[in-house]
Amino acid sequence: MSSQVWQQPEIISWSQIILDSFAEVVGKELLARKGTPAAQAEALFFAPFVVVSHGTQAEPIFNYGNQVALDLWEINWQNFIQTPSRSTAEPINQLERQQMLEQVAQKGYVDNYSGVRISSTGKRFLIKNTIIWNLRDRAGNYCGQAANYAEWDMIKN
Fold first, then answer.
1. Is residue 76 scored above 60 in pLDDT?
2. What is the dihedral of CA 84, 88, 91, 95, to 10 degrees?
3. 104 near 134, Cβ under 8 Å?
């Protein structure tokens, strides 16, 4: 199922929000935007780096994870999109969190976040140089947050 998830119309649309928001906020493309929205959704899903996003719920739930993310978290699509994003991270201290929020407020994104994440099987890994950005639809409405990183180290428990 997960290998064809990118073909679903709602995922194609969501992929455009991820890509458009990244370009708008960060000022560069997350990946080369070639072809149709469906081709771009496929490229995003099979990109050689992690891309995840969550919605605007009080307890945000993941609503997108590309194949690298699913592999890293050792989880399938159906289970991933039911996972609260908070539950995959170790708590960060308040000062670090406050600094991150201030940077997002000033820049619209954070591009140097690092933190420990936990896979579905309990494996811990440190993500590095992570970009976190707000997602907005074409009308400018806030619709969640996304994260992207290409560097991580597995942590021996």
1. yes
2. -80
3. yes
